[in-house]
């Protein structure tokens, strides 16, 4: 801390000194520790930014890994194809489905019950009632009144009642027809209609004619004869939905396979996330273009993360029937610590040892689950290494801010006192010439020396 002096020139000049600038110089000198605190705070905040970035990168890696380790992740995805899409099409294969080949023949497609009325002449209105029943459900009777005594208002009334059918009106030169279609396909959706009391204003009875009868689809799957009320079949094979679109007396093949494309994509995403993290880690071990060390240069948290990741990647298992290490999947570690994937080697491994590879990522105690635990212990949440390191910085930043607050409080009190004292001293200095003059006058009065003749 430098020494601050007071420059007031000649003591007998009466000029005194500049109290404000003197106080400011003293206070600046006493705030010297704040400079070091501010520098340290800036360093900590730079570290916080890097720690946050590393935490984000590690979180991205954990998410990419989760796609490979979760029950419904990449290894559970399926894809499928059929030998004749004019007979059957595969619409969905979930993680519950199993890879395999199935044979199918379709003798009959499911149909939906449909009926239409006789024509009602233009301008004629309706009288009486109409009864509608779908399958074994309860019949609903619709009584005709002024709100539904035309074909269009009757169709609206039926639809508003939601009785399990959809009503439309078809019109041509001969009049209007009421068309009813069951909302349920197959035999269970057959409609029973009673129009015996329904007439028009011309005295004509209105009859209904079946356009289509509801019937179940009939098909054979893997030699088993089955039926379905809908052409969309979702309960025959676990996790698989297929659509019957035509009939065939010869076998159609439907193949469900593991979606190796999704696995390859997931592994590439994992590798990309891993390489991003390791690049960020190694980037902290260098200096910038100005020769300044990066914020976490030499920090122990870097070596901890790099060491644990390296150990986790080297994980292997000797259990029979499993993939034993990443190299068997075509994943290798370069001299720069970056991962790379040989897609040909991966494809070969998946075709010959799919179960072993999926176990390598998904089984408890194997590579994937082990790496998941390692990343959790290193991350920016809970007691993860990055979280604890960031908390350490936060604590120190808080302490530095507290130090500054306390120092400023003390200096504020001191500045007030110092200003008062220096103002008093300045007044004394400024009064010296007057006091000297008074002494001279007293001396002259006593001695006569200095008096004018």
Walkthrough of the structure:
This protein has 453 residues and is of the alpha+beta class. The protein folds into 3 domains: 36-73 and 261-381, no CATH class; 78-109 and 217-258, no CATH class; 114-212, Sandwich (Immunoglobulin-like). The protein is 43% helix and 22% strand. The protein has a 5-stranded antiparallel β-sheet, with no helix packed on it. Strands 8-9-4-12 form a 4-stranded antiparallel β-sheet, with helices on one face. The chain has a 3-stranded antiparallel β-sheet with strand order 2-16-15, with no helix packed on it. A hairpin with a 2-residue loop joins strand 8 (165-172) and strand 9. It holds the Pfam family FliD_C.
**How much β-strand is present in the residues?**
15-25%
Distance between the termini: 59 Å
Biggest sheet record: 5 strands, antiparallel
Strand order of the largest sheet: 1-17-3-13-14
Runs with pLDDT <50, length 5+?
none
Contiguous helical run count:
8
Tell me the helix content.
40-55%
- State the domain count: 3
Mind telling me the C-alpha Rg?
Answer: 46 Å
| Mean pLDDT across every amino acid position | 91
Write the H/E string, N to C. HHEEEEEEEHEEEEEEEEEEHHEEHHH
Beta strands, count: 19
Shape: elongated
Helix-and-strand structural type: alpha+beta
Family: Belongs to the FliD family.
Pfam families: FliD_C, FliD_N
Protein name: Flagellar hook-associated protein 2
Subcellular location: Secreted; Bacterial flagellum
What attributes does this structure have?
about 450 residues; alpha+beta; 3 domains; 8 helices; about 45% helix; flagellum; secreted; FliD_C; bacterial flagellum
């Amino acid at each position: 801390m430098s020494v601050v002096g007071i420059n007031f020139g000649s003591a007998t000049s009466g000029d005194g000194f500049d109290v404000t600038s003197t106080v400011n110089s003293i206070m600046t000198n006493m705030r010297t520790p704040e400079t070091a605190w501010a520098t340290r705070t800036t360093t900590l905040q730079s570290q916080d930014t890097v720690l946050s970035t590393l935490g984000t990168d590690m979180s991205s890696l954990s998410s990419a890994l989760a796609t490979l380790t979760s029950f419904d992740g990449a290894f559970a995805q399926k894809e499928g194809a059929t030998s004749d899409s004019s007979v059957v099409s595969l619409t969905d294969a979930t993680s519950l489905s199993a890879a395999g080949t199935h044979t199918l023949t379709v003798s009959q497609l499911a149909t939906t019950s449909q009926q239409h009325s006789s024509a009602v002449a233009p301008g004629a209105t309706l009288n009486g009632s109409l009864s509608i029943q779908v399958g074994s459900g309860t019949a609903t009777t619709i009584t005709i009144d002024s709100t539904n005594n035309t074909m269009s208002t009757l169709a609206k009334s039926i639809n508003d009642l939601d009785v399990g059918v959809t009503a439309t009106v078809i019109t041509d030169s001969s009049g209007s027809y009421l068309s009813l279609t069951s909302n349920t396909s197959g035999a269970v959706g057959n409609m029973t209609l009673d129009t015996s009391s329904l007439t028009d204003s011309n005295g004509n009875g209105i009859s209904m004619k079946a356009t289509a009868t509801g019937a179940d689809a009939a098909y054979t799957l893997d030699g088993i004869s089955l039926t379905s009320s809908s052409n969309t079949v979702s309960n025959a094979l676990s996790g698989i939905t297929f659509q019957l679109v035509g009939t065939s007396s010869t076998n159609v093949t439907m193949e469900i396979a593991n979606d190796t494309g999704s696995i390859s994509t997931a592994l590439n995403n994992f590798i990309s996330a891993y390489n991003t993290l390791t690049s960020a880690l190694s980037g902290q071990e260098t200096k910038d273009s100005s020769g300044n060390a990066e914020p976490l240069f030499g920090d122990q948290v870097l070596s901890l993360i790099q060491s644990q990741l390296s150990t986790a990647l080297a994980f292997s298992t000797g259990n029979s029937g499993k993939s034993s290490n990443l190299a068997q999947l075509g994943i290798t570690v370069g001299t720069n610590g970056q991962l790379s994937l040989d897609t040909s080697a991966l494809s070969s491994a998946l075709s010959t040892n799919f179960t072993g590879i999926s176990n390598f990522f998904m089984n408890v105690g194997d590579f994937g689950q082990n790496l998941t635990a390692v990343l959790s212990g290193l991350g920016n949440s809970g007691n993860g290494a990055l979280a604890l390191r960031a908390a350490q910085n936060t604590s120190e930043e808080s302490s530095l801010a507290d130090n500054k607050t306390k120092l400023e409080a003390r200096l504020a009190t001191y500045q007030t006192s110092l200003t008062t004292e220096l103002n008093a001293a300045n007044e004394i200095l400024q009064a010296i010439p007057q006091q000297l003059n008074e002494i001279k006058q007293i001396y002259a009065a006593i001695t006569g020396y200095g008096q004018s003749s």
